[in-house]
Specification:
Belongs to the TonB-dependent receptor family. This protein is mostly beta strands and 967 residues long. The protein is built from five helices and 50 strands. The protein has a 22-stranded antiparallel β-barrel. It is globular.
Length: 967
């Protein structure tokens, strides 16, 4: 039986290789000189050689067998599947399963998984049956923390099982390491791979342009095969190369006289009554970055089974993830500096008409203000998980299980940024230049090219400063900031259970108790980087030559060279000073959350025949009692003043609740390879950690004059809610499956989840009488006692439903000449009646987080005589998702449809001197598809609901060549 399992404000700092994939693939197929793992023998899927790269067909057989024999509706990934695609983690493989979709993170790799249209927050993630910690301020696990080389298999439960603790509302992913006593004999596997990215090395000196992955695994049995040992180590050193453009804002200033070249577009009435000519890209940025990703993973398993009456296993998982990212950023603004009488002049304007909106897509612009930014980010994640599980015979037909586990994640991050721009030292003012720009309104390549060469790279013509007013405090000494978020997540769990074999309709009965305690601390700290002053009281804007590096090459964005500054070296040089950041910006998001969850469960297993139809499954019940509490902060000082720690006030809150969760899983076996499955269950998922925080932000009095309707009103304050109750839903599932042979099947499934309760953002009131108003409120204005407060609250109603289709088909079933060929396909169609509101946009409803209306995956493969080939494509329709920005705040974005193709070719030596050796070629993101975020063009457009490109990230194509040796 498997088992589940005070905020602090102190500071916590912690030559180009090019491969043409098609040409390389053809050459390798002809020479048979690259490959994947040797064709797997008919051993169990838990053998060590399945941990790295093994036979495609055997992996499919293992997954199909597990799916067929399960009493629940599940999907299975065996380690052979993972090794047969260019996967950086298990998430890449999970994203190919029916009903599951992957979200590519800022590095281009899938790090988050949505199950059945619900965001990652709604799914449970277990390691060997025990709840797993996470590195963010939520419950969602980042899957790239799990090296694929150390994973034996993963099971996705789509219907609840009463004996499974730590389940999610949308589903549960149980990641499993291997069991050494299930392996036959000693197994040693060595693996080495090198990789290159088609984006090249965008930023020099950060990491080697050649990445590598190495791993070593060892399994053996001792004492007459009663003791088993498994050890595994995996190192990932893979650089990320990202090209990012952001179109922050469109606005229409053409009523004031925009010169348009060629034929003028048809004039459209604006929302403000003016007649506009074109929407202008008023604020646009381009960022180039290189990131060093270094991850060391360790797995160890000690298994003891002297006889059938006793079985004990201790497993350890450890991962250390270090990243270092350096980036350069160019930002332009068409707003100019109107207070100084400087407004951009445009010529040669090209436009594009989309519906009722006209967009300026290219032009030459003079008097353009520019900002140059430099970023340096360092992050460390330290994760450990250990568990001890013992099963023993208590009496005739009675068995007992005890499980003790602990997991912990420590994350420290340090984000440093500094800004400046072109500067006229003689006249002590910013310089405004001319640019040729091309910004398509439908996405694609975007460029802003300075007319004057070297304009943005010569430090003699540049200076530090807040060129575009990015610092909200309003102190022009500001040139940047250092932000240092830190997270500590800890889970302790104890589980005791017994099982009794029965005769009759019910084959067995099990019951048990699980107690889990989780504590999570989230810290945020910020220091402002300020310029020093000279003897005359003037800011020292000069950039020290000692901190200037080789310019960034941003030719892909139209900028040949961009000034590069080493921000940590700048801070260490003493040329600037540090000042504690304003508490109102982040103190309300510092929190500590504690929860103790006690789960009692009982389950009756069903195994019988009715009228010649086999019937199996289970009937279960969980009783879950949760006690939760949180501590947070409120800052009762003025935002304009220097931060005063004595004005911080600790806030506390919490609640407790009990849920009764029945579940039923039935499988009808019609004895002719037809199966029908039915599931009915009540499920919950506890509130997000960040939603449960006790902190609250600091509001200000609005600047409206006395006598106007809003005079004396407060801006909106934002807070968590320690008394939040969970999401609750009743789920109904139906699946029909037909199996052909060992590796082929077709299935169709339908599901519906009726929500009994959910969590939404809503507005209420808060007493602001203890918050001092700022000094510059208009004369005669008296602040009101109460102000608006947006906080997460519980609601009720809504549904999520969908259809899923999956098939695995062998070519040999159609004709013997097709032996070795095959295909695996899946498709899902989902819908939901639930709409969410963003905390700062309550009037705007967005689709349920993580929901893609359609998704599909298609894989074709060939494997025979040691030669293997595989091509896979996954697709998901547009969706919304919440991520973290550079301020460590939640930001919800609208994603365009995402389609990614991967390729793998290989050859395994099955006999002779090189037996056990396999060679491989893997190509990830073959078509170099970017991720694309959209946003509404804005209320002042003729059609303000029209979506326009916001963020476009190009990650490049990754080509990997490697070898694997098993002995």
């Amino acid at each position: 039986m498997q088992c589940s399992t005070s905020p602090r404000l102190q500071r916590s700092y912690p030559p180009v290789f090019r491969v043409k994939p098609v040409a390389a693939a053809c050459g390798l197929l002809m020479l048979a000189s690259v490959a994947v793992e040797a064709q797997q023998t008919a051993q169990q899927a838990s053998q060590l050689d399945t941990v790295v790269v093994t036979g495609i067909r055997r992996s499919i057989e293992s997954s199909v067998t597990a799916k067929r024999n399960s009493d629940s509706i599940i999907e299975v990934i065996s380690s052979e599947d993972i090794g047969k695609l260019p996967d950086a983690s298990i998430a890449e493989s999970l994203a190919r399963l029916p009903g599951l979709t992957g979200q590519r993170g800022p590095d281009g790799r899938v790090d988050r998984i949505s199950i059945r249209g619900l965001s990652p927050e709604f799914s449970g993630v277990l390691l060997n049956g025990r709840e797993m910690v996470s590195s963010g301020d939520s419950r969602a696990v980042e899957y790239d923390q799990f090296p694929s080389e150390l994973v034996g298999s993963a099971i996705v439960y789509k219907t609840p099982d009463a004996a499974l603790v730590g389940q999610g509302l949308s589903g549960t992913v149980d990641i499993r390491t291997l069991r050494p006593l299930s392996v036959t004999g000693r197994q040693v596997v060595l693996n080495a791979r090198g990789e290159r990215n088609s984006n090249g090395n965008l930023v020099s000196g950060v990491t080697s342009p050649t990445g590598m992955r190495v791993s070593a695994s060892y399994v053996d049995q001792f004492a007459n095969k009663t003791i088993g040992v498994a050890l595994g180590f995996a190192r990932l050193d893979a650089p990320s190369q990202v090209k990012l453009t952001e179109l922050v804002e469109y606005s229409d200033f053409t009523p004031f006289g925009l010169p348009l070249s060629g034929n003028k577009p048809s004039l459209k009435p604006m929302a403000d009554g003016n007649t506009g000519q074109a929407m202008l890209p008023m604020f646009w940025t381009a960022t180039t970055s290189t990131k060093k990703n270094l991850r060391d993973g360790l797995m160890a398993v000690l298994e003891y089974k002297p006889n059938d009456d006793l079985h004990s296993m201790v497993d350890l998982y450890y991962s250390k993830f270090n990243t270092h990212e350096v980036g350069g950023k160019f930002a332009q603004s068409l707003f100019g500096n109107w207070s100084a009488g400087i407004a951009p002049a445009l010529s040669n304007v090209g436009t594009t008409q989309i519906g009722n909106n006209t967009y300026a897509t290219s032009a030459t612009t003079s008097q353009l203000v520019a900002n140059v930014g430099n970023m340096d980010t360092r992050r460390t994640d330290d994760i450990v998980a250990v568990g001890w599980n013992t099963e023993m015979k208590l009496a005739d037909k009675w068995r007992g299980v005890a499980d003790l586990s602990y997991s912990r994640d420590k994350r420290n991050e340090r984000y440093a940024e500094a800004y400046g721009g072109p500067y006229d030292n003689a006249n002590k003012q910013w310089t405004y230049g001319a640019y040729n720009w091309n910004v398509p309104a439908t996405g694609g390549a975007q460029t802003f090219t300075p007319v004057q060469p070297g304009y943005l790279s010569n430090p003699a013509n540049m200076a530090f400063g807040d060129v575009q007013g990015m610092d909200w405090v309003g102190n022009d000494a500001w040139i940047g900031a250092i932000r240092s978020p830190a997270v500590k997540d800890e889970i302790k769990s104890l589980r005791l259970s017994v099982k009794r074999e029965l005769d009759g309709f019910f084959s067995s009965f099990s019951t048990g108790l699980n107690v889990t305690h989780r504590s999570k601390d989230v810290e945020r700290n910020e220091d402002r980087i300020l310029m020093k002053k000279d003897a005359q009281g003037n800011f020292i804007r000069t950039i020290p030559t000692s901190v200037v590096g080789t310019p960034f090459d941003m030719s892909w964005a139209g900028i040949p060279q961009l000034l590069r500054v080493d921000v940590p070296a700048l801070v260490a040089s003493g040329a600037v000073t540090l000042e504690q950041g304003q508490f109102h910006k982040w103190a309300g998001n510092v929190s500590s959350v504690d929860e103790t969850v006690t789960t009692g469960f009982g389950k009756l297993d069903i195994d019988t025949d009715i009228a010649g139809v086999g019937l199996r499954g289970n009937l279960g019940l969980q009783i879950v009692h949760a006690k939760q509490s949180s501590e947070g902060w409120a800052y009762l000082g003025r935002n304009e003043d220097f931060p005063d720690p004595s004005l911080l006030r600790k806030l506390q809150g919490g609640t407790s609740y009990t849920d009764v969760l029945p579940s039923l899983n039935l499988v009808a076996d019609f004895k002719n390879n037809w199966l029908a499955r039915f599931g009915l269950a009540t499920a919950i998922v506890r509130p997000g950690i960040n939603e449960m925080r006790a902190g609250i932000s600091t509001p200000e009095v609005v600047q409206d004059q006395a006598g106007t309707p809003n005079a004396g009103n407060w801006t909106v304050a934002y807070a968590g809610n320690p008394a939040l109750k969970p999401w609750r839903a009743v789920g109904i599932d139906l699946s029909v499956e037909k199996y052909f042979g060992k590796r082929s099947y077709v299935s169709a499934a339908a599901f519906r989840k009726n929500l009994l309760s959910y969590i939404q953002n809503a507005q209420t009131e808060v007493d602001n009488s203890g918050v001092p108003p700022q000094s510059n409120i208009p004369p005669g204005v008296t602040p009101k006692k109460f102000g608006p407060l947006v906080t997460p609250t519980n609601g009720s109603g809504g549904k999520v439903e969908g259809l899923e289709f999956a098939a695995a088909l062998e070519g040999g079933l159609l004709h013997p000449s097709l032996d070795g060929f095959g295909a695996v396909v899946s498709a899902s169609k989902l819908s939901s009646s639930i709409l969410e509101q963003l905390p700062d946009q309550l009037a705007k409803s967005i689709p349920l987080n993580g929901l893609s209306g359609r998704s599909n995956s298609l894989t074709f493969y060939y494997e025979n005589h040691g030669l293997s080939a595989r091509v896979s494509q996954r697709y998901r329709a547009p969706f919304t998702a919440t991520t973290r920005d550079i301020y460590f705040n939640s930001t919800t974005l609208q994603y365009a449809a995402d389609k990614v193709m991967d390729l793998q070719l290989g050859y395994a030596f099955e006999s002779g001197t090189f037996k056990g050796l396999s060679l491989l070629l893997q190509v990830g993101n073959v078509l170099d598809k970017p991720t694309l975020n959209y946003k509404n063009v804005g209320a002042n457009a003729p059609d303000g609901t029209q979506l326009t490109p916001n963020l476009i990230r190009y990650f490049g194509r990754t080509t990997l060549v490697g070898m694997n040796y098993k002995f």
